[in-house]
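Protein modeling request. Please complete all fields; requests missing the sequence field cannot be processed.
Requester role: graduate student
Desired output: 3D structure, token encoding
Chains: 1
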Amino acid sequence: MRPPPRFPFHLLSTLDCASLIGGQSLDLALSREARNSHRARLAALKTVPLFELSVRAGAAFADLSPAEQPSLLDFGAGLGIAYQMRDVHLDGEVPTSLTAANRFARACASLAPFGPRAQPLRDLVEYLVLNCSSAFMYYNVCEMPKHAAPMDCSAEVRSELVAVSRSRTKEARMVERARIVLACLEGKEIQQVAHERGVSIPTVSKWRRRFAQHGIAGLRDRPRPGKPATYGAAFRDRVLALLEQSPPKGLSHWDGPAVAAALGASVHAVWRVLRKEGIYLQRLRTWCVSTDPEFAPKAADVIGLYLNPPLNALVLSVDEKPSIQAIQRPSGYVETDNGAVVRAMKSTYKRNGTLNLFAALEIASGHVHAQTTEQKKREDFRRFLDAIIADLPVDKEIHVILDNYCTHKRNDDWLAKYAGRVQFHFTPTSASWLNQIEIWFGLLTRKSLRGASFANKDQLRLAIEAFVSRTNENPKPFHWRKREVKGSQLRNTIVNLCN
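Delivered output (499 residues):
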């Protein structure tokens, strides 16, 4: 059986002392409506004399001067400490009654300056302690609910709580709070939830209340002021501004330690800024920017042939891959230190000559025409195109996409031979990437040439012809998907990149 609650003397230090001074303790402790409705119960609790004692004590201190107020407040504070030490559990231990009695005696000693005038207050406290120590607390809590109000939420919120409670990636504190709320939603008592979850009762009450007020958002920690940031937005601006300047002597570029030394800051703080801004000082990329003043019309001409080729015409993407080396060296598989098996080839090799490759890609079908030569002169280029044109109907137009290599220029006499049937379309300067044959050259290098070993040029020629035949067995055209083509894409300053 639980012991009856004690009279809250700590309230006397803040409320009842002030009410005694004003003669209003009766209004605070026992209202007129409460006396009329609970007179029988109050009589059984022997609280009837309390009215007379309260009025007497209030009258004694009605004309309290400002100089006397501190002593009375000391009495109330000391009385509150005595109550707490006697009836409140601190760290799981109940202080001895002797300690509480000493505190009580010390509190009463603070009434000595008032002399006989303080006797009514002593009588009131003595009556409360000896006759009805549980009366007032019982009266104040008798109307309080013995069980916490039931909780409820929508099915969506409950499912989200279940997902958080079972998560292995969420913060542990969020998982624990979700489990506490779910237990409360099941109708369990606060004490039972605290016992099952291994937490304190105030913890359960706190997250129960926060969830009832704010939902799942209330389970997150509220913002705290925390320690002021040592490296804030101003430090970030200093780092970016420094990267615009020339690096120190002896360095070709900035790195983290160099930036930290120049700013007199932590290198870790510099790295955090660089990572947040996506700046990688050790990475290096090359670029090729076209400065052709006619970039737009030339690019539109080439891309127009890809997207909307002329009727009854053949569109060819033509270029050469020069100086393909017939390299001979051992290759195979090796096991690395971490146990991975990878392709490998010897670092030293033997050169067995070079070949030149002319290739033409049919844009519509993906079929590839190819021819290997010893040289890459203009005459070789013309003979390659003559061989392709010879197999086509006479009435079929031919549109050839080319880059600006020297062998592709000054061919007006050769074009005149075909009387306008063949038309050249040149890509902008430094924009050969617009030519789709370059894609096929990349496939040839990755799939057939890289890592291979050729004892002579004939083996190299056979390998190229075999890849061409493999491509033409199941040709597939390349589809142009780039939506925007710009002549200049370089933003060479940190400010432009990060702002």
